[in-house]
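Researcher: We plan to redesign the surface later, but first we want a full-length starting point. Tokens attached.
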């Protein structure tokens, strides 16, 4: 008996179904690949931004580093004053989280100089910056002046903000004598260490810039 049904239409329908299935699978695969690519790109961008933030210091020195001589001797300094500001485009920085270390070539060393309460120089335990510090572990640092501090009269804080310049006073030990190379390292919470290396001259004045 002759078959009156034709399978041509079914063959075409099967081919269409297979084609649609391939298109769907390809679309899903492309979406997965693109999603993975976007995720990888975003991760790479975040890594680059984090690396730049960690590799570049957020602080910079403004002007000279000033050494203040010990009032009891002419061969030793008591502390240094250094003015710091944020680098261009820097975000406000909480200086209470900053770590300052000290070394010199007379075996003076303090890996973490104590910050005063509220960074106020009036809160020095010794009571006076010019007081000689014999125990290197007792060194302290504070903020002696805030220039362009718009919050001074309203809500004072410990955030170093753009356009502000803060004068940081750092006590030095009895090893900070003439012809000594002193080094301070300022480590902010975010960013690279800002090193300050200076050599004290052979003769000291009451107040002088050191280079």
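Model: Full-length starting sequence:
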């Amino acid at each position: 008996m002759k078959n009156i049904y034709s399978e041509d239409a079914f063959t075409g329908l099967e081919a269409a179904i297979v084609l649609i299935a391939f298109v769907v699978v390809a679309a899903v695969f492309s979406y997965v690949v693109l999603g993975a690519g976007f995720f990888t790109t975003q991760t790479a961008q975040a890594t680059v931004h984090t690396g730049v933030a960690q590799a570049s210091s957020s602080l910079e020195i403004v002007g000279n580093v000033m050494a203040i001589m010990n009032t009891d001797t002419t061969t030793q300094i008591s502390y240094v004053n250094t003015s710091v500001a944020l680098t261009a485009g820097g975000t406000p920085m909480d200086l209470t989280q900053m770590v300052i270390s000290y070394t010199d070539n007379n075996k003076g060393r303090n890996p973490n100089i104590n910050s005063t309460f509220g960074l106020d120089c009036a809160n020095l335990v010794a009571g006076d910056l010019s007081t000689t510090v014999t125990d290197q572990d007792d060194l302290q640092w504070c903020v002696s002046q805030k220039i362009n501090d718009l919050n001074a009269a309203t809500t004072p804080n410990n955030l170093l903000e753009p356009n502000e310049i803060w004068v940081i006073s750092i006590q030095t030990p009895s090893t900070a004598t003439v012809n000594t190379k002193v080094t301070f390292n300022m480590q902010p919470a975010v960013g690279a260490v800002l090193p300050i290396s200076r050599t004290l001259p052979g003769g000291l004045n009451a107040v002088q810039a050191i280079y």
